[in-house]
Design brief:
The chain has 30 residues and is mainly α. The chain is 93% helix and 0% strand.
Length: 30
């Protein structure tokens, strides 16, 4: 269970990082 939880947490963190970078890039463009 802990391994699955760790994998899900890592995936969510990766998604959040990508979304944050995308938002920052869009803000820089505009």
């Amino acid at each position: 269970d802990s391994v699955l939880f760790y994998a899900e947490t890592a995936s969510l963190t990766l998604v959040n990082n990508v979304m944050t970078e995308t938002l920052i890039q869009e803000m820089d463009v505009h």
